[in-house]
Specification:
Blueprint lengths: L1 E3 L5 H5 L4 E7 L4 H16 L5 E6 L4 H6 L7 E6 L2 E7 L4 H13 L2
Parallel strand pairs: 1-3, 2-3
Antiparallel strand pairs: 2-4, 4-5
Amino acid sequence: MLQNVDHDNLANFIDAADMAVLDFWAPWCAPCKMMAPIFEDLSDELKDKIVFGKVNVDNNEDIAKQYKVMGMPTIVLFKHGKAVEKVTGVYSKEQLKHYFDRKMQEI
């Protein structure tokens, strides 16, 4: 299940599971719109293993700055509450699933 993440629930979100993923996006970002259904599908498929969330950078600029998000879409991967990796750009569902599968094996 995909959660909207902001200042109020950021700490609880990243601590909710061994692995969490945040999608940094904006309503005006065309590549973000392309990634949205892929991210949604993967959040449903992997909900038992990974917590998925979205951060609207227009409403949460300081969170984007905190994680050094310079382009969109950007996905930040958290393990045990710490940001460990950042991926920017558009990827296919298969590419992202493969990436998440590899990262889950590292936990």
